Protein backbone atom coordinates (compact mmCIF):
# COMPACT_ATOMS: atom_id res chain seq x y z
CA UNK A 1 0.00 0.00 0.00
CA UNK A 2 1.06 3.54 -0.71
CA UNK A 3 2.01 5.38 2.50
CA UNK A 4 0.87 8.80 1.46
CA UNK A 5 -1.82 9.87 3.87
CA UNK A 6 -3.43 9.44 7.24
CA UNK A 7 -2.17 7.07 9.90
CA UNK A 8 -0.31 4.95 7.38
CA UNK A 9 2.00 7.94 6.99
CA UNK A 10 3.44 7.52 10.49
CA UNK A 11 6.76 5.91 9.82
CA UNK A 12 7.87 3.49 12.52
CA UNK A 13 11.57 4.30 12.54
CA UNK A 14 12.40 2.16 15.56
CA UNK A 15 10.98 -0.92 13.86
CA UNK A 16 12.66 0.01 10.57
CA UNK A 17 16.04 0.39 12.28
CA UNK A 18 15.75 -2.87 14.22
CA UNK A 19 14.80 -4.81 11.10
CA UNK A 20 17.50 -3.26 8.94
CA UNK A 21 20.13 -3.88 11.63
CA UNK A 22 19.10 -7.52 11.95
CA UNK A 23 19.35 -8.17 8.20
CA UNK A 24 22.73 -6.40 8.09
CA UNK A 25 24.06 -8.47 11.01
CA UNK A 26 23.02 -11.63 9.21
CA UNK A 27 24.71 -10.57 5.97
CA UNK A 28 27.89 -9.58 7.81
CA UNK A 29 27.94 -12.93 9.55
CA UNK A 30 27.74 -14.71 6.20
CA UNK A 31 30.26 -12.52 4.42
CA UNK A 32 33.45 -14.18 5.67
CA UNK A 33 32.91 -17.69 4.39
CA UNK A 34 34.89 -19.39 3.13
CA UNK A 35 37.95 -17.83 4.67
CA UNK A 36 41.40 -19.32 5.11
CA UNK A 37 43.49 -19.44 7.17
CA UNK A 38 41.19 -19.82 10.16
CA UNK A 39 43.33 -17.49 12.31
CA UNK A 40 42.81 -14.65 9.82
CA UNK A 41 39.09 -15.36 9.61
CA UNK A 42 38.83 -15.19 13.39
CA UNK A 43 40.57 -11.82 13.55
CA UNK A 44 38.39 -10.45 10.72
CA UNK A 45 35.19 -11.71 12.36
CA UNK A 46 36.23 -10.41 15.79
CA UNK A 47 36.05 -6.82 14.60
CA UNK A 48 33.42 -7.09 11.87
CA UNK A 49 30.92 -8.71 14.24
CA UNK A 50 31.72 -6.59 17.28
CA UNK A 51 28.45 -4.68 17.28
CA UNK A 52 28.26 -1.02 16.39
CA UNK A 53 25.31 0.92 15.12
CA UNK A 54 25.63 -0.34 11.50
CA UNK A 55 24.73 3.13 10.35
CA UNK A 56 26.70 2.86 7.12
CA UNK A 57 25.08 -0.28 5.70
CA UNK A 58 21.65 0.95 6.77
CA UNK A 59 22.20 4.27 4.95
CA UNK A 60 23.19 2.32 1.84
CA UNK A 61 20.10 0.11 1.89
CA UNK A 62 17.81 3.08 2.54
CA UNK A 63 19.30 5.04 -0.38
CA UNK A 64 18.91 2.06 -2.69
CA UNK A 65 15.22 1.86 -1.84
CA UNK A 66 14.79 5.61 -2.21
CA UNK A 67 16.20 5.29 -5.73
CA UNK A 68 13.58 2.64 -6.48
CA UNK A 69 15.83 -0.39 -6.12
CA UNK A 70 15.55 -3.60 -4.14
CA UNK A 71 17.54 -3.30 -0.89
CA UNK A 72 18.66 -6.93 -1.15
CA UNK A 73 20.65 -6.04 -4.26
CA UNK A 74 22.58 -3.41 -2.30
CA UNK A 75 23.37 -5.72 0.62
CA UNK A 76 26.81 -6.86 -0.62
CA UNK A 77 27.78 -3.20 -1.03
CA UNK A 78 26.30 -2.39 2.40
CA UNK A 79 28.50 -5.14 3.85
CA UNK A 80 31.50 -3.78 1.91
CA UNK A 81 30.97 -0.35 3.47
CA UNK A 82 30.94 -1.82 6.99
CA UNK A 83 34.11 -3.76 6.11
CA UNK A 84 35.88 -0.57 5.06
CA UNK A 85 34.64 1.18 8.21
CA UNK A 86 35.80 -1.74 10.38
CA UNK A 87 39.24 -1.98 8.80
CA UNK A 88 39.71 1.77 9.27
CA UNK A 89 38.91 1.34 12.98
CA UNK A 90 41.34 -1.61 13.32
CA UNK A 91 44.14 0.39 11.72
CA UNK A 92 43.20 3.59 13.58
CA UNK A 93 43.55 1.75 16.90
CA UNK A 94 47.08 0.47 16.16
CA UNK A 95 50.00 1.70 18.28
CA UNK A 96 51.38 3.58 15.24
CA UNK A 97 48.15 5.57 15.04
CA UNK A 98 45.74 6.22 17.93
CA UNK A 99 47.11 3.44 20.14
CA UNK A 100 43.79 2.40 21.66
CA UNK A 101 43.20 -0.62 23.88
CA UNK A 102 39.42 -0.64 23.66
CA UNK A 103 36.91 -0.42 20.81
CA UNK A 104 33.18 -0.96 21.05
CA UNK A 105 33.72 -1.99 24.66
CA UNK A 106 36.16 -4.80 23.85
CA UNK A 107 39.94 -5.09 23.54
CA UNK A 108 41.12 -3.78 20.17
CA UNK A 109 42.05 -6.21 17.41
CA UNK A 110 45.82 -5.89 17.88
CA UNK A 111 45.46 -6.39 21.65
CA UNK A 112 43.89 -9.79 20.97
CA UNK A 113 45.68 -10.99 17.80
CA UNK A 114 48.88 -8.94 17.76
CA UNK A 115 49.81 -6.06 15.47
CA UNK A 116 50.82 -8.08 12.42
CA UNK A 117 47.54 -10.00 12.27
CA UNK A 118 45.53 -6.83 13.00
CA UNK A 119 47.15 -5.07 10.04
CA UNK A 120 46.52 -8.08 7.81
CA UNK A 121 42.93 -8.53 9.02
CA UNK A 122 42.38 -4.89 8.05
CA UNK A 123 43.97 -5.43 4.66
CA UNK A 124 41.85 -8.53 4.08
CA UNK A 125 38.65 -6.68 5.03
CA UNK A 126 39.50 -3.81 2.67
CA UNK A 127 40.14 -6.11 -0.26
CA UNK A 128 37.11 -8.27 0.58
CA UNK A 129 35.01 -5.11 0.40
CA UNK A 130 35.86 -4.73 -3.28
CA UNK A 131 35.30 -8.44 -3.82
CA UNK A 132 31.80 -8.09 -2.32
CA UNK A 133 30.92 -5.51 -4.95
CA UNK A 134 32.73 -6.92 -7.96
CA UNK A 135 32.18 -10.65 -7.48
CA UNK A 136 29.39 -11.11 -4.93
CA UNK A 137 26.62 -8.79 -6.10
CA UNK A 138 24.38 -11.01 -8.21
CA UNK A 139 21.72 -9.38 -10.33
CA UNK A 140 23.15 -5.86 -10.34
CA UNK A 141 24.04 -4.49 -13.80
CA UNK A 142 27.85 -4.47 -14.18
CA UNK A 143 27.97 -0.79 -15.15
CA UNK A 144 26.37 0.10 -11.80
CA UNK A 145 28.88 -2.09 -9.95
CA UNK A 146 31.74 -0.42 -11.79
CA UNK A 147 30.49 2.98 -10.61
CA UNK A 148 30.26 1.64 -7.05
CA UNK A 149 33.83 0.29 -7.19
CA UNK A 150 34.97 3.71 -8.43
CA UNK A 151 33.16 5.54 -5.63
CA UNK A 152 34.57 3.19 -2.98
CA UNK A 153 38.11 3.48 -4.31
CA UNK A 154 37.90 7.28 -4.04
CA UNK A 155 36.52 7.39 -0.51
CA UNK A 156 38.83 4.74 0.93
CA UNK A 157 42.07 6.05 -0.52
CA UNK A 158 44.09 9.26 -0.45
CA UNK A 159 41.15 11.41 -1.64
CA UNK A 160 39.09 10.11 1.31
CA UNK A 161 39.75 8.25 4.55
CA UNK A 162 43.50 7.83 4.20
CA UNK A 163 43.98 11.50 3.29
CA UNK A 164 41.80 12.60 6.22
CA UNK A 165 43.71 10.36 8.59
CA UNK A 166 47.08 11.75 7.43
CA UNK A 167 45.97 15.37 7.95
CA UNK A 168 44.55 14.37 11.34
CA UNK A 169 47.85 12.77 12.38
CA UNK A 170 49.78 15.80 11.16
CA UNK A 171 47.50 18.10 13.16
CA UNK A 172 48.04 16.29 16.44
CA UNK A 173 48.98 18.60 19.27
CA UNK A 174 48.47 21.66 17.05
CA UNK A 175 45.72 24.25 17.04
CA UNK A 176 43.97 23.84 13.71
CA UNK A 177 41.52 26.25 12.09
CA UNK A 178 37.92 25.46 11.20
CA UNK A 179 38.82 24.80 7.56
CA UNK A 180 41.36 22.11 8.50
CA UNK A 181 39.00 20.61 11.05
CA UNK A 182 36.30 20.34 8.40
CA UNK A 183 38.79 18.86 5.93
CA UNK A 184 39.64 16.14 8.45
CA UNK A 185 36.03 15.33 9.22
CA UNK A 186 34.82 15.49 5.63
CA UNK A 187 37.52 13.00 4.67
CA UNK A 188 37.79 10.74 7.72
CA UNK A 189 34.07 10.44 8.39
CA UNK A 190 32.04 12.29 5.79
CA UNK A 191 33.50 10.57 2.74
CA UNK A 192 32.45 7.08 3.79
CA UNK A 193 29.02 8.19 5.03
CA UNK A 194 28.53 9.88 1.68
CA UNK A 195 29.64 6.77 -0.20
CA UNK A 196 26.98 4.82 1.67
CA UNK A 197 24.08 6.76 0.24
CA UNK A 198 25.70 7.33 -3.15
CA UNK A 199 26.54 3.68 -3.77
CA UNK A 200 23.14 2.54 -2.51
CA UNK A 201 21.49 5.02 -4.86
CA UNK A 202 23.70 3.92 -7.76
CA UNK A 203 22.65 0.31 -7.29
CA UNK A 204 19.02 1.40 -7.12
CA UNK A 205 19.44 3.19 -10.45
CA UNK A 206 19.22 6.79 -9.20
CA UNK A 207 19.25 9.66 -11.70
CA UNK A 208 21.74 12.55 -11.50
CA UNK A 209 19.28 14.76 -9.65
CA UNK A 210 18.89 12.29 -6.79
CA UNK A 211 22.65 11.63 -6.65
CA UNK A 212 23.30 15.39 -6.38
CA UNK A 213 20.71 15.77 -3.61
CA UNK A 214 22.19 12.80 -1.74
CA UNK A 215 25.67 14.35 -1.88
CA UNK A 216 24.31 17.45 -0.12
CA UNK A 217 22.38 15.26 2.35
CA UNK A 218 25.47 13.18 3.10
CA UNK A 219 27.77 16.17 3.59
CA UNK A 220 25.28 17.61 6.07
CA UNK A 221 24.80 14.47 8.12
CA UNK A 222 28.53 13.63 7.95
CA UNK A 223 29.57 16.96 9.45
CA UNK A 224 26.69 16.98 11.92
CA UNK A 225 27.67 13.46 13.01
CA UNK A 226 31.18 14.64 13.77
CA UNK A 227 30.09 17.79 15.57
CA UNK A 228 27.83 15.68 17.79
CA UNK A 229 30.76 13.29 18.35
CA UNK A 230 32.88 16.22 19.55
CA UNK A 231 30.06 17.46 21.79
CA UNK A 232 29.57 13.96 23.25
CA UNK A 233 33.30 13.72 23.99
CA UNK A 234 33.06 16.87 26.07
CA UNK A 235 29.78 16.14 27.82
CA UNK A 236 30.89 12.56 28.54
CA UNK A 237 34.23 13.77 29.88
CA UNK A 238 32.52 16.09 32.33
CA UNK A 239 30.52 13.13 33.68
CA UNK A 240 33.25 10.52 33.80
CA UNK A 241 36.71 11.09 32.36
CA UNK A 242 36.37 8.26 29.82
CA UNK A 243 39.38 7.00 27.90
CA UNK A 244 38.73 8.80 24.63
CA UNK A 245 37.73 12.04 26.27
CA UNK A 246 40.70 11.90 28.61
CA UNK A 247 43.10 11.25 25.78
CA UNK A 248 41.63 14.03 23.67
CA UNK A 249 42.02 16.47 26.51
CA UNK A 250 45.66 15.48 26.96
CA UNK A 251 46.38 15.63 23.22
CA UNK A 252 44.58 19.00 23.18
CA UNK A 253 42.71 18.00 20.07
CA UNK A 254 40.89 20.71 18.18
CA UNK A 255 37.14 20.17 18.21
CA UNK A 256 34.06 22.09 17.10
CA UNK A 257 33.10 23.07 20.67
CA UNK A 258 36.63 24.35 21.19
CA UNK A 259 36.48 26.51 18.05
CA UNK A 260 32.82 27.53 18.15
CA UNK A 261 31.62 26.92 21.72
CA UNK A 262 29.11 24.30 22.81
CA UNK A 263 25.94 26.19 21.93
CA UNK A 264 27.11 27.33 18.50
CA UNK A 265 28.27 23.77 17.75
CA UNK A 266 24.84 22.40 18.66
CA UNK A 267 23.23 25.01 16.44
CA UNK A 268 25.58 24.23 13.55
CA UNK A 269 24.76 20.51 13.79
CA UNK A 270 21.02 21.24 13.88
CA UNK A 271 21.30 23.56 10.85
CA UNK A 272 23.26 20.96 8.89
CA UNK A 273 20.63 18.32 9.60
CA UNK A 274 17.85 20.68 8.55
CA UNK A 275 19.68 21.42 5.30
CA UNK A 276 20.29 17.70 4.70
CA UNK A 277 16.63 16.91 5.21
CA UNK A 278 15.53 19.87 3.11
CA UNK A 279 17.18 18.63 -0.08
CA UNK A 280 15.24 15.36 0.10
CA UNK A 281 11.84 17.11 0.25
CA UNK A 282 11.03 16.44 -3.43
CA UNK A 283 11.15 12.70 -2.74
CA UNK A 284 8.53 13.03 0.00
CA UNK A 285 7.47 9.86 1.83
CA UNK A 286 9.99 7.67 -0.02
CA UNK A 287 12.75 9.57 1.79
CA UNK A 288 11.34 8.86 5.27
CA UNK A 289 14.07 6.42 6.35
CA UNK A 290 16.85 8.82 5.34
CA UNK A 291 15.04 11.77 6.97
CA UNK A 292 14.67 9.79 10.19
CA UNK A 293 18.29 8.61 10.02
CA UNK A 294 19.43 12.24 9.83
CA UNK A 295 17.59 12.96 13.09
CA UNK A 296 18.81 9.75 14.67
CA UNK A 297 22.43 10.68 14.01
CA UNK A 298 22.09 13.99 15.83
CA UNK A 299 19.98 12.72 18.70
CA UNK A 300 22.28 9.81 19.56
CA UNK A 301 23.95 9.82 22.97
CA UNK A 302 26.86 7.50 22.23
C1 LIG B 1 40.27 2.97 4.49
C2 LIG B 1 42.39 2.18 3.35
C3 LIG B 1 41.75 2.78 4.52
C4 LIG B 1 42.54 3.12 5.59
C5 LIG B 1 42.05 3.68 6.86
C6 LIG B 1 42.95 4.56 9.79
C7 LIG B 1 42.31 5.26 8.65
C8 LIG B 1 42.76 4.94 7.27
C9 LIG B 1 41.31 6.15 8.83
C10 LIG B 1 40.71 6.47 10.14
C11 LIG B 1 39.26 6.63 9.96
C12 LIG B 1 38.52 6.81 11.26
C13 LIG B 1 38.93 6.06 12.48
C14 LIG B 1 37.45 7.62 11.25
C15 LIG B 1 36.53 7.82 12.37
C16 LIG B 1 35.22 7.21 11.98
C17 LIG B 1 34.15 7.28 13.03
C18 LIG B 1 33.34 8.51 13.13
C19 LIG B 1 33.93 6.21 13.81
C20 LIG B 1 32.80 6.06 14.72
O1 LIG B 1 31.71 5.62 13.92
P1 LIG B 1 30.38 5.05 14.53
O2 LIG B 1 29.92 5.97 15.63
O3 LIG B 1 30.89 3.71 15.20
O4 LIG B 1 29.42 4.79 13.44
P2 LIG B 1 30.18 2.29 15.33
O5 LIG B 1 30.98 1.59 16.40
O6 LIG B 1 28.75 2.50 15.75
O7 LIG B 1 30.29 1.64 14.00
UniProtKB/TrEMBL annotation:
CDD domains: Trans_IPPS_HT (cd00685)
Pathway(s) it belongs to: Isoprenoid biosynthesis; geranyl diphosphate biosynthesis; geranyl diphosphate from dimethylallyl diphosphate and isopentenyl diphosphate: step 1/1
Reactions mediated catalytically: isopentenyl diphosphate + dimethylallyl diphosphate = (2E)-geranyl diphosphate + diphosphate
Entry's Gene Ontology cellular component terms: cytoplasm
Named cofactor requirement(s): Mg(2+)
UniProt GO BP: terpenoid biosynthetic process
Keyword RNA-binding found: no
GO MF terms, alphabetically ordered: dimethylallyltranstransferase activity; metal ion binding
Assigned EC number: 2.5.1.1
Keyword Metal-binding in annotation: yes
Family matches, as NCBIfam families: FPPsyn (NF045485), GGPPSynCrtE (NF045685)
UniProt-recorded name of the protein: dimethylallyltranstransferase
Amino acid sequence: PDNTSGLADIFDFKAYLAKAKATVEQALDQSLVPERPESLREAMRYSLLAGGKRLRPILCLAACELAGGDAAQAMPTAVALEMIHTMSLIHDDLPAMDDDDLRRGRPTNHKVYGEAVAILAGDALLTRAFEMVALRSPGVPPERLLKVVGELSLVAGAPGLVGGQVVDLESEGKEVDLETLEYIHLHKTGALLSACVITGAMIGGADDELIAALRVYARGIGLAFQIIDDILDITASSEVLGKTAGKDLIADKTTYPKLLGLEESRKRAADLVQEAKGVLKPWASKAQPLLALADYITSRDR
